[in-house]
UniProtKB/TrEMBL annotation:
The protein's name: E3 ubiquitin-protein ligase TRIP12 (HECT-type E 3 ubiquitin transferase TRIP12) (Thyroid receptor-interacting protein 12) (TR-interacting protein 12) (TRIP-12)
Domain of life according to the entry: Eukaryota
Organism expressing this protein natively: Cladocopium goreaui
The keyword Transferase is assigned to this record: yes
Gene Ontology molecular-function annotations: ubiquitin protein ligase activity
Domain HECT positions: 20-215
Length: 215
């Protein structure tokens, strides 16, 4: 908008949506004009992103210092500290290749490392896009990222077990995979083909993001 038309917005120096919060002393009586609009925008950003969360950040800093001196964190860069706290990015391809997956994901209770359905699962995971990696992690672990060390950092490790076979005439292809996210425990039916496995996991990953059901 042209600076000469700012007055038409009828703004004053209060926080948008919160007229009781003044951006400067007497702000409710100060109109935003072409001359002071830069100051207005700067104060909106400062109040929203800094001052509004300052009490929470102070409380976090105080509690964090009881565990670790803040000065100690200076040995890490911002990116390294985020990696420690938040986990690895789903863009990190080294955690999604067959070598890493096969060495860090465990097969148990009906599956071995050589079971066809288990190796199909690893192949499926190795081919996921970053967005679908995130979807799988949310479905299988309840978190959108991997910890330090990738799948090797999960505690307990991600474990894949064979879901109990259904009574005839039903087959494993009729059932969905399920998980115990608190234990990183994936119960995978012994699907008849890679295509069926992919179809079922794609559906589970897409539809199982906002549900917490009995497994």
């Amino acid at each position: 908008m042209d600076s000469s038309n700012v007055e038409q917005l009828c703004l004053d120096f209060t926080l948008p949506g919160h007229p009781q919060i003044e951006l400067k002393p007497g702000g409710s009586s100060i109109n935003v004009t072409g001359e002071n609009r830069a100051e207005y925008l700067r104060r909106v950003v400062e109040v929203t992103l800094v001052e509004a969360v300052a009490p929470q950040l102070d409380a976090f800093r105080s509690a964090f210092k009881e565990l670790l001196p803040v000065e100690t964190c200076r040995i890490w860069s911002e990116q390294e500290l985020a990696f420690i706290i938040v986990g690895s990015s789903v863009q990190e391809d080294s955690f999604w290749n067959m070598e890493h997956l096969s060495s860090k994901i465990k097969a148990q209770h009906g599956y071995t490392a050589d079971s066809r359905c288990f190796t199909d699962l690893l192949t499926f995971l190795a081919g996921l896009s970053p967005d679908n990696r995130r979807n799988f992690l949310m479905f299988a672990t309840g978190a959108p990222t991997l910890p330090l060390g990738g799948f090797g950092g999960l505690k307990p490790p991600l474990t894949v077990v064979k879901k109990e076979a259904p009574p005839a005439p039903l087959t494993p292809d009729d059932f969905m995979p399920s998980v115990m996210t608190c234990a990183n425990y994936l119960k995978l039916p012994e699907y008849s083909s890679f295509e069926i496995l992919k179809q079922k996991l794609d559906l589970a990953m897409r539809e199982g993001q906002c549900a917490f059901l009995l497994s």
